[in-house]
Here is the input.
Amino acid sequence: KVTVIPKVPERINRLEELAYNLWWSWNTDALKLFKLIDIELWNQCNKSPVKFINNVEQSKLEDAAKNEEFLSQYDLILSKFDSYMNEPKTWFSKTYPENKNNTIAYFSAEYGLDESFPVYSGGLGILSGDHCKSASDLGLPFVAIGLLYRQGYFNQKINKEGWQETTYTELEPSELPIKPVHTTNGDELVINIDFPGRTVFAKVWQVSIGRNKLYMLDTNVE
Here is the structure.
């Protein structure tokens, strides 16, 4: 599959970096940037920054890069983002400096980080997502591990006869805030797990959640 995406002008080229870091999911002022570019498309994209970046018209990006009001908001948001990401004195570093070289591994079956990233179904996912966001705010040396589902929670609608219908949507990785992990020689990382009579392979995707990473295993590979 070949996906053609617009080229973000150099003046605002960190929009993509922002789109791929779920810091915006609890610092929602950052989402104003995408709405300012094209509010109609923003709503059509289910308020997903990555999907928005992939589908926005080139001319809209060019206009935004020349709009002083937009650029003022852009610079302000990126300044807040950089201050957050580069803060040297977090709660953890000040409270437990002797543990700075330790790492917390966090495992969950689902992560509820944002509605536009529907790989969760209920309370466990929301709790796990909140743990990830809090760990980032506190500066914990924290790595999360989970599973990437190609179908998230289902949507419901009422048909013309008044019956409830359930619809499942196949998630498209290129429209999600995830990036494949690569090995040192540049290949996409695929791990294998031996089961009785078979071997299961899983591609590894990376999600940036503020200062921390979530690694998701995807068994939808040949």
Notes: The mean pLDDT is 93. DSSP finds eight helices and eight strands in the chain.
